[in-house]
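Quick start: what a row looks like.
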Amino acid sequence: ATINMAYNGRDDIAQGMISFLTQHTVFADITDFEHNVVPLKSNMWVSFKALTDATSKFARNGNQQLEMGYIESVWEAWITLTQIDSIRHGVHHATYKRDYIQFHGVMINAFGFAVQQMMVNHSIAEITSMIEKLCATTSSAEREDFFLMDNWAGICTKASQEKLSVIANVAAQKAAANRLIQAFTKGSLETT
């Protein structure tokens, strides 16, 4: 499905994302354009399909499509929030993803749902500003800990045989989106 999305010339969102991701210094190095789920042996961190699916959740406002600059600003805020640019240099994605959820498809899609829901009351500029302010007022360690799989138990992870596994359905994506919205609007990673 991913490779079909990438070559579908009639999908404006997918084509815009290909252009953006392949020209972006970080995304060009971390995006897998061939697989729905990034294979364990891959050097890539995120799936083009997850990024494009998440983008499609907020890229259209009614019949009108957002300008690519706004879409790019949302993903720039995501880079800051998730710290992918620094994390990717110290560890292999398969090792990292055992404990952290921010680069799993469920959380990428949750981010798309969060932006979509926030667009009801906020502009894209306001949304990215909220995310940037959250990042400016929290430490790298706090943001990384926020995405520990343990902290998402019952939302988009579940315990199975002494380890956590990802719940990847739409209900889990929406539940995680609600938690992201709470963090963005409150400007705090506290869950209480």
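That is the whole record. The chain is about 55% helix and 10% strand. The chain has one domain: 2-186.
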